Amino acid sequence: MKFRAYIVEDSPTIRENLIETLQELALVDPVGVAETEQEGKKWLAQNDEYWDLAIVDLFLKEGSGLNILEACRCRRPTQKMVVLSNHATRDVRWRCHQLGADAVFDKSTEIEDLVDYCVRERVKVEH
Question: Taking the model in full, what pTM does it have?
Fold first, then answer.
């Protein structure tokens, strides 16, 4: 069983590097991407059976990742919502967890932690 991730990130460079890193190091299967809040919310809602993990940036081309978190609060317990942001302050982390994030990672300093998290979650899904 593959561990399927949907990525909401408006920077093409960051998105491509993230996909490559997660495929190679965490054996994550990317199932789609979005650049805006509306695209992300719509895909996640319409494809509930096709994702295990959503990785969401907070500041998007249009809209906010916070609204995506809020829209996905009623997801299945096995589906994880992760925030990956350059603005992962203590207050932002608290707000993200309040809206249902399972984890929050800083883009510049915690990519390895994100990979480790993905590996742990993939192992849970496989067993």
Answer: 0.96
